[in-house]
Design a protein that fits this description.
Layout lengths: L9 E6 L1 H11 L4 E4 L7 E8 L2 E7 L4 E5 L5 E9 L1 E6 L2 E6 L2 E5 L5 E5 L4 E8 H10 L16 E2 L4 H16 L7 H16 L12 H14 L7 H8 L3 H11 L4 H19 L6 H7 L5 H12 L3 H8 L1
Antiparallel strand pairs: 1-3, 2-5, 3-4, 4-11, 5-10, 6-9, 6-11, 7-8, 7-10, 9-12
Length: 317
């Protein structure tokens, strides 16, 4: 799960764990590394800054302990993608295995133990980003500040959040085109989803006309499923800004408008292939739906439906 992200942002690979630790100390956060495992441990790190977020994928190649006095004005989303990781906090031990996640608050002491095969995603979210998300939602911050509960979350219970996290990492890998501060909106998207998914000391309030906007967008896209519909076009349709539209999708759908458009196109194309409607060959129907990058199209299709488009078409005949 999410182990093949940031392939274009490899900082170091197949190196000594202390080499990874040195980079983390300089660019991610101060900590102390204690190697607990034996043998030839080979560590790796991928890291990039994106839309005010710090995105990383890390593995030490053996059992280690990572300690830090605090994480300053930064929240950490820790997602275990392989193996196990445990957090010793004030005498309590929280254990995370693959597919589980935890939010760490600013000024909390870090004492983590990685298993031999542990790999993790770590997302640094500035305190200011989550504060802004609270204010945009019309929520009042508690006097003690926003604090997430020390609770392990099962990410498979929220596929919408997994899709959003994957979208953020994919955009970081590809490079986001800054249209109307869309790139910056990813930080707000993730912040909004974190506030709704991870238990914290905020009161959750119901939304307004978001569902009506989404219904309008779905109808609009169905009628123009083979056209190149832009995010700006959808924001104008709903009479809201691009940033507001991204926030609506983050809260209600758990993905971005751009990814939502692509998923609707793929769903419609999948239906056409299954029925054999106008499907003379995969390339032709892919181009008909506006997928010009055929390699990426096949990859996205397989990720969504578990098979290549050519396999779907073959079953229809």
């Amino acid at each position: 799960m999410l182990n093949n992200v940031l392939v274009n942002s490899v900082v170091c690979s197949n190196v000594c764990p202390h080499d990874v630790s040195d980079y983390v100390n300089k660019h991610v956060g101060n900590h102390r590394l204690t190697v607990l495992g034996t043998g030839d441990m080979r560590a790796s790190l991928r890291y990039t800054d994106f839309a005010r977020l710090g995105l990383s994928h890390i593995g030490y190649g053996g059992e280690v302990r990572v300690q830090s006095p605090d994480i300053e004005e930064i929240y950490h989303l820790q997602v275990v993608t392989r193996g196990r990781c445990s957090w010793n906090y004030d005498g309590d031990v929280l254990s995370l295995s693959s597919g589980q996640a935890l939010m760490m608050n600013p000024r909390e002491r870090i004492d983590l133990t990685y298993s031999n095969d542990c790999q993790k995603l770590i997302v640094k979210v500035p305190e200011s980003v989550l504060k802004t998300a609270c204010l945009q939602d019309g929520r009042t911050l508690p006097k003690e500040g926003l604090r997430f509960d020390h609770r392990v979350m099962e990410l498979h219970s929220s596929m919408a959040f997994l899709r959003l996290l994957e979208a953020v990492y994919e955009e970081a890998a590809e490079g986001c085109v800054d249209i109307g501060s869309v790139c910056e909106s990813y930080a707000s998207l993730l912040a909004g989803k974190l506030l709704s998914l991870f238990p914290c000391n905020l009161q959750h309030e119901s939304g307004g006309a978001a569902e009506q906007q989404l219904q309008l967008i779905r109808r609009y896209l169905v009628e123009r499923i083979k056209e190149d519909v832009s995010v700006e076009e959808l924001s104008a349709l709903c009479n809201v800004s691009v940033r507001t539209l991204y926030n609506v999708f983050a809260k209600e759908v758990g993905t971005t408008p751009k990814l939502f458009i692509k998923q609707m196109k793929l769903q419609s194309l999948h239906t056409d292939l299954k029925r054999g409607v106008g499907a003379r060959n995969v390339t032709e129907i892919a181009l008909d739906y506006g997928f010009s990058h055929l390699g990426r199209f096949s990859s996205d299709y397989r990720k969504l439906f578990g098979e290549l488009p050519s396999e779907t078409l073959r079953k229809a005949h």
